[in-house]
Amino acid sequence: MIQHPAIFALASGAGRAAVAVLRLSGAGTAGIVTALAGRLPPPRRASLRKLRHPGTGEVLDEALLLWFPSPASYTGEDSAELHLHGGPAVLAGVAEALVAAGARPAEPGEFTRRAFLNGRMDLTAAEGIADLIAAETEAQLRQALRQAGGALATLYGGWARRLTALLARQEAFIEFEDEDLPADLDDTVARDAAALRAEIASHLADGGRGERLREGLLVAILGAPNAGKSSLLNALAGREAAIVSARAGTTRDVVEVRLALAGVPVTLADTAGLREATDEIEAEGVRRARRRAEEADLVLAVFAADRPPDAETLAWVRPGTLVLANKVDLAPAPAAIGGAVPLAVSARTGAGLAALQERLAAAASELAGTADAAVLTRPRHRAALEEAVGWLEELTAAPLPELRAETLRAALRALGRITGQVGVEAVLDAVFGEFCIGK
């Protein structure tokens, strides 16, 4: 195991608390802990110790101390945890003492980066831990746990092993063509590579569900002025998030509310009413409304049941759009709007809102996917897999065995970048820069 210089960071939440946890890791951790606590406790056993400043001998705190000798630690290095009283003065004093003893504050993600460098996890598991920390909903939590637990590493590692075996067979065909090898060895490699390419392509054709679940869905609420969009947003959010007024054009900018539907994080965006703008500010609001609709994963086209459908909103009634007839307390919902059967709701009375929430939850589940399968969660995974598929497609057209071997090598390198087996220096800073200090 590589022992890097000793680092420390707060592993618990910032601010005043009953207990705060400081983590240490790296070369010299044993000496630093001994300098503050007098002696090391037994491994992985919490021991109560008085902590003293190594320079002045001043008592800093009475804390629980845990010692994790290498390699049986999160980072694979010698590590320790100090469970302190959570006052700011205590934390500041102990941090100063740690610096005096030879440790330095950690950079974001540095603990997990060291765990990766020491082979304690691959890059996909490290990203899963980052997602676990950021998870807002149960569905995000389950997806992050699967990834941190090695679901993607197992899948991609299996593909990498198959590619390695294919490459070995192709190299054997090149190096030992005069030997008594199976006559169809070259054809068998091409056939098996095509089967693997189809598997990877199927994995890619997931509609971006894992990425949507990780990032959250955007739902844009569109409609004419006074169609009841803001009232609908408030009703779904359960609070007064947007200003509601009988005056047309009240909403000039996009008003967003974050909520969870079927375990999927969703941002509801109330937008300016679609119409010919009367001034430059409203015109900008309408432009932003259209742009948000173009970016959205789902569009709610809202029509007022007591008025004829407006042409601007009708233009957004497309496959996948959820069409609503609002204000059914004032007039019955029409049988069809723009060829679609509308869902009848009343933001004022609450009629139809339960059905709307069910429809939104079903749409969120379909778009984001909440099954237990290992799914793509990041654009860099998708880019590497698309590159691997591209190389495997080139194999079928390569005229020479040597060129076919090179396409297999290139596909293997692309897969290796996902898990961190090869060519990872360019992506390490991006991966671990997302972490909080202390992880």
N-to-C span: 19 Å
CATH-assigned fold name of the largest domain: Rossmann fold
Structural class by SSE content? alpha/beta
What is the name of the CATH superfamily of the largest domain? P-loop containing nucleotide triphosphate hydrolases
Task: Please give a quick description of this structure.
GO terms for molecular function: hydrolase activity. Helix content is 45%, strand content 17%.
What does this entry look like structurally?
- This protein is of the alpha/beta class.
- The protein folds into three domains: 7-106, Gyrase A, domain 2 (2-Layer Sandwich), CATH 3.30.1360; 143-206 and 376-424, Up-down Bundle (Four Helix Bundle (Hemerythrin (Met), subunit A)), CATH 1.20.120.430; 213-368, Rossmann fold.
- The protein has helices at residues 29-37, 88-101, 110-117, 123-134, 138-148, 151-175, 185-204, 209-215, 229-237, 280-295, 311-314, 353-368, 379-397, 401-419, 425-432; strands at residues 7-10, 17-25, 47-52, 59-68, 79-86, 104-105, 217-223, 255-261, 264-270, 298-304, 322-326, 343-344.
- The strands form two sheets. A six-stranded mixed β-sheet has the order 3-4-5-2-1-6. Strands 8-9-7-10-11-12 form a six-stranded mixed β-sheet, sandwiched between helices.
- A hairpin with a 6-residue loop joins strand 3 (47-52) and strand 4 (59-68).
- Helix 6 runs antiparallel to helix 14 (401-419) and helix 7 (185-204) packs antiparallel against helix 13.
- The longest helix has 25 residues, at 151-175.
- The two termini are 19 Å apart.
